[in-house]
Predict the 3D structure of the following.
Amino acid sequence: MAQKNKLQFIILGLLNQQPLTGYDLTKAFENEIGEFWQAQHSQIYPQLKRLETQGYIAHEVTVSGAKLEKKLYHITTEGSAILRDWISTGTPDLTATKDEFILKLYFIRSNHDPRLPEMLQEQLQLHTTKYHHLQQRLKTVFTDPASKQAHYGHYLILQHALGREEYYVDWLKQSLAALPTAR
Amino acid sequence: MAQKNKLQFIILGLLNQQPLTGYDLTKAFENEIGEFWQAQHSQIYPQLKRLETQGYIAHEVTVSGAKLEKKLYHITTEGSAILRDWISTGTPDLTATKDEFILKLYFIRSNHDPRLPEMLQEQLQLHTTKYHHLQQRLKTVFTDPASKQAHYGHYLILQHALGREEYYVDWLKQSLAALPTAR
DNA sequence: TGGTTCATGTAACAAGTTACATGATTAG
DNA sequence: CTAATCATGTAACTTGTTACATGAACCA
């Protein structure tokens, strides 16, 4: 296996909360999930078919309006079981973050390289924006304490992502400050 | 294009420092580079051929011992140019970290979930180990200040990776501490 | 009636992993 | 002499992205 097909478990995880259509799932990857995983509908629809053949999900067709058919998928008992297994199994592989900017930095040899300031500055801007964006999401998604209780994992990882961005921003600022002053 | 083929630039970046064989490059991905990017030899050898047809690198054959042939690749002027372009071009896409553990956490709904403590504990152990490992590398790779000068980018990102792990460990400890006490 | 969103699919391609395959050199 | 490492390649497969393709429903 290439790397365990995580997509199937994300789909199962989402369907474990409530029945959804392929379209709903696609939207979920643009919103909540999108913060830490991406998938396009062209990957989702075939995966849904595979999961159904395997018996982990099933669907019923509902009709909106005159004839628009939607396939509303729900998880089966077997699906719930393998989802539980996946979550319970250890996660010993720490994924190396494939950050293109970090990669570029690696090839900068001297701290006098004229490209360094603008490169760091650009990232500072990007990560600051992302930081504010996450701060906003944390505020809007978990307004009342009850939602924090009902979606504890989501709360934990959003908070984690926020902290990670905060560190990234700090590191960029420090690196910029440590640069030799141009004259 | 799928996502810009970063591998080719990593290879060019490494060859920009000194001529290397495919085998050397493979080793580099297991060591320095391995901290933030992976590639197997089965991906490297074909990429080398493509880069050579494109005129960005060239090789000469050297013979070790009686008949073992090595292809020592070096970068061409054109190769240097597109490497410079890649580094100079902005990097506006922040890669979402595809962290499997974070994904699993997302599907944990309650802070009373019995799996939470062991899951956090496992990650704490893994990230602590990685933290120490990075600390060690920073110490061994940059013993004298001169090397820090000559490989400034490498120094920056190693230090960044260390800080990132430090934050991860802190977050895990905090999350563990915040868990409701079992009775 | 016309543009945006809803809704579902396939095709072609790029990137990345695992497995298959072979042979030379070196150090103990 | 034999095991580990050096050295180079291909094949098969999985995962992920972009593009192609179609049509219904909804809102202004």
Remarks:
- Residues 98 and 169 of chain B are 18 Å apart (CA to CA).
- Chain B has two domains: 6-88, 100-177.
